[in-house]
Records
---
Amino acid sequence: MSPNDSRRPVRARRGARAERVARRYLRAIGMTVSDQNVRVGYLEIDIVARDGASMVVVEVRCRGPGAWLRSLDTLDRVKRSRLRRAAAILWSRKWRRLPGIERVRFDVVAVDLDGDQAPQVEHIRAAF
């Protein structure tokens, strides 16, 4: 944790921790994490990874203790549309030229950070 982390809002710290957990998980299952917090104009992709012939856009979802909805239930139509637009731009500008890349896939990693317990990860491949 950097010295400035204590001044960041709780939600931002929780989100950053969830993204770290997600990156570790993706590496552990054999995916290569190539980038994180990728900005495409006003659009943002949490994690970009490579899985065989696929570039994978990974949306990380996290809810705090006592949340009314599960993490996966918070990924609405608008967010999915934004991720598709960002991926389309990156595909046309960069990814389609990478050797061995044939497609883009959209995964969701939900991370449950419940107190002092070990984080729980739920990974949905080709979620949308």
---
Amino acid sequence: MTTINETKQIGDGAKDVRPKSAALTVQGWMQSPTMSAALGSALGGYMDFKTFAAQCYITAQDPKLVGCSAESMMKSFLEVAQMGMLPGPAHKHVALVPRNGVITVTPEWRGYKFVMEKQAGIKRVRPILVHKSDVFSTTGGGIVHEYDPFDDARVFEHPDVAKAAKRECQLRGGYLEILHDTGEVEYHFVSAAKIERNRACAETQKLWMKWFEEQCLKTIVRDAFSKRVVSISPELGSRLAAADDADNRALGNDPARGGTATVIQSRTERMAAQLGAAEDVPNMALAATAEVIDAVPEPVAAT
């Protein structure tokens, strides 16, 4: 891999040569024909390349990613492109989690929502959790769900946290509300037991422990996709499958531990392996997937 340097004129004509920042290096790589072609292929025309590249450059300057290699940044952005999502905390589609200079991409429930809402005929999808204190029932194909949004006691605790405090876990389950363009509303229900089985299959419990409510919401959306509750086009299905792949790897999901998730070979790695050794283009093979770290992104309040 060629190292990109920044040259600055100083003093009596002497030159100060210093390495570019990772953000500038990534920007330079994105301008190379090889990487722009790879990203363009990953984006598949669903988004303008310049728009996506600009979001990547902004994200690369995030102080949390200081110390991460430019190569790892580039690989993570390629993964995000394949998912059909956008990087950056402003969008909350994915969490980019650094460890020892390497970034792990973890899709968030808002990212799944973003992709699913691109399906023709789907106006909105919304995952909702049900607390044991809520009034909830199904009737005539619809639902009745009432709760006080200002009730400070209406919290969703990780089962281990509740158990340690000798409290019962208050999660009853959740559902995905699917609003079609026609005005029809469809629901997909996921029990607390199913959410618990998915949690149990994760080797890495840090994300579940610190981000329990958001992980439950994501499980609801993932379950609806895996069961093909709504018809998804092959292109969007491929993007959601790539997100599932990244999520499984980030969490270390293993069906043998009680869940149903599967781990498949990274499509990003397969594509990266085909990029060759073009000048000024990162060798993605060096940026292997990393274990999720002790530092976990701060939870985002569910809406």
---
Amino acid sequence: MTMLDVKRWPDDPHARAALERMIEARRGPDPSERLAGEGLDFRGADLSGLSLAGAVLYRARLDGVRLIEADLRDAVLNDASLEGADLGGAALIKAALHDARASGASFRDADLTRAEVRGADLRRADLSGANLEGASLTRSDLRDADLSRARLKRTVLDGALLAGATLAAASGTVWGPIDVGAPGSPEPLDGEAMFRWLREQGAGDVAQAQALSGPPWDL
């Protein structure tokens, strides 16, 4: 197996053709060819382990697609649908997921360093063990998401919805404010109040916690 082997092709022939074009180009004169998958339907596919660095998947349908340990660094997934997709262990370094719909998706142990995930729907998503260093989750919906063991070094959570989220053993530094209220009842928290709430959810080690003079806040 190589980083260009597809385990299962998408059901849609147009999406399959786009993948075939990329793979043919990469095996030939242009190894840097990017997947042109804007608006295409990749459902039914297993693209685990595939090299998709720089892929353009704007508004693509990736619901339920397996992308385990795929290379998606610098990929454009803005407004893509990833509901129930499995991106466990995937490299999403500097990827763009603005307004992505990824409820119930798995990002377990994925690397989202410096990823732009603003306004995304991540309800019930599994982000356990994910590296979110420098990532922006501004205004993203993380209600009931699993962020246990997540690395939150300088992670931007400005306006993120976190009611019901699991944060056990999460650690690092974050920017707020966050919203921990129920639907229709905003409850914004910032500064020490945000810090205390995150600690109450099991984030970090309170004995070693120290708030900075301004954002971000140590957990």
---
Amino acid sequence: MTCEECREKWSAILDKEVSLPEIRAVLAHLQICSECCRYCCELTCLDALLRSLDAPLSSERLWERIKAMLMVVSPQERPIPEGWVVVRSHLSRLGRA
């Protein structure tokens, strides 16, 4: 097993997405590779830290602020995202926009 494979599998192990033989192969690699062992320890600590955090709560007034911003600018004055310009031009050729 290469170091790259080991590191990818370790991430999958943390997500509980690997089989027992894969876990054994990763553990065998970790016994002989101190760099991967250190990497996997750090990744495990980071994973545990992130899982312990609460999901951020949105502001109670967030939707009200968004609606207020949308009301200020009329639909014709709102900027069109770049991808929609292409869609809009194709629709106008078809007589649908």
